Amino acid sequence: MALPSSPKPFLAVVAALVAHVAYLLAPDVQEPLWIILLYGVAAVTVLMAMAWLRGGGEIGNGRLRLRSVVAGGFVDVLLFVGAGYCTSVEPGVIKLGGVLPLGWSCAALVLIDGLIQVFSSTTGKVADSPLNLAQGQRWLVLAIGTAIALAERLMGEEPRGLKGMLTAMLFYSAYTCWRRYRATVQRLAAETPKE
Amino acid sequence: MKNPPPPRPWTAVIFACLGWGKIAETMNPWAAVLYHLLAGAVILGVWESLRWGARMKEPVQRMKFRICAAIAETLLLANAGEVFRVECQDAVGKTVALGWICAAVVLVDRLIEAHARPDSESDWMLDHMLGLRCTLLGLGVAGHLTEKLTGASYWSVGTALVLILGFSLFACFRRYGYVTGSGKPRKMIESSVGLDVRS
After folding, report:
1. Contact at CB, B92 and A115, closer than 8 angstroms
2. Rounded to a whole number, what is the distance in Å from the CA of B152 to chain A's nearest CA?
């Protein structure tokens, strides 16, 4: 499939909205065909949103770049929050230790990571470490988690795969945030003239 | 005039980490007063630690301030969402989302704000959003305590969260307009453009 030449933020948000609705509806359906359809739609639209926002944060056109960054924020929230509610196990929210809603926590952390990346980009284009989790990689992990959740659902098991993916993403995103934060602080400090 | 004290961004995060989301669950009136005072102190501590940060010009300090403010506000709003859940007597826990929705909108607002230049002008309301949100949350906690002690409900954490959501959405649109140059007034646009976003 040929990737779009420039980012399409609006289409990405629409795709994320479709995925969000599919995630919310999926736990309530019982027919295997509908289960496959809804999980499939969720996984495919996650990948479509990823393709439509590809390279949005790196383009030179300032307005389109801002639009892509803001749309990326909304897409992150819609996808992770939707995935966080994609469980039929009470209380209907995937939580870490019964306290922390994983979807919302991942979404908040990803937005904070985006904020750090904006500050990082003000010092010019710098190659990101391969150890840092990029936006596209997060969505790819989410799509894989959704596919695992579909398999678990069809086998009548609890969505442990999706919970595991979200938990891993939460901790690895926190680690990525810390790495990017430290790198940006060091770079900014080096560029700031000493008085 | 005396110089303002330097902001202490990490102190704000430490304050915000003190979870106060369970204050609504206590039944003992004395314990309720104590917990609500603690929640008020947390909100006041966050605000006091961050209130002068918006004036920072030095890039590292400004970045630290903005990131810590984002983390602290997210934690405060998540805790407020938990109080709102108990206010609604929602055992399932879906109403806890109101706090998280507010946090997400605030984070998107901060994402847009990060694109503005440090020396850019802004309007009074956008400059004081942090204070406004903390004041509304403080009033929410005070209203919750009043309701707990007297049974009279004038103001709740839910009201505060709805207002915060409204103000933050408004701030998002307004700031987006300023940063991209499509907002008003014209004079402000000329000097408030950040990363050359008008091209």
Report:
1. no
2. 30
Residue B58 CA to residue B76 CA, distance in Å, equals 26
Mutation for B interface: A13, A24, A70, most B CBs within 10 A: A70
- What is the rounded CA–CA span in Å between residue B181 and residue B135? 30
Residues 6+ apart with CB under 8 A from B180: A63, A66, B197, B198
- Residue-wise pLDDT tens for chain B (199 aa)? 556 666 778 888 888 887 777 777 777 778 888 888 888 888 888 888 887 776 677 778 888 888 888 898 899 998 888 888 877 765 555 555 888 899 999 999 888 888 876 666 567 788 888 889 999 999 998 988 888 888 777 788 888 999 999 999 999 988 888 887 665 444 444 443 444 444 4
Please identify which residue in the block is written with the tokens 């917990």.
B35
The amino acid at B86: V
Of A15, A20, A49, A14, nearest to A136 (Cα)? A49
CB atoms within 10 A of CB A167: 17
Query: Least CA distance to A73: which residue of chain B?
Result: B108
Identify which of A65, A69, A107 has the shortest CB distance to residue B104: A107
Partner-chain residue, chosen from A70, A92, A108, that has the shortest CB–CB distance to B92 = A92
Report the predicted TM-score, pTM, of the whole model to 2 decimal places. 0.83
Q: Are B66 and A121 an interchain contact pair (Cβ–Cβ within 8 Å)? A: no
Is the backbone of residue A142 left (phi > 0), alpha (psi -120 to 50) or beta? alpha
Residue A26 and residue A87: Cα distance in Å, rounded?
A: 8
User: Encoding tokens for residue B180?
Assistant: 């991209």
Cβ atoms of A59 and A68 closer than 8 Å: yes
pLDDT over threshold 50, residue A181: yes
* Contacts with A188 from chain B: Cβ below 8 Å: 59-60, 63
For residue B117, count other CB atoms closer than 10 A to its CB. Answer: 15
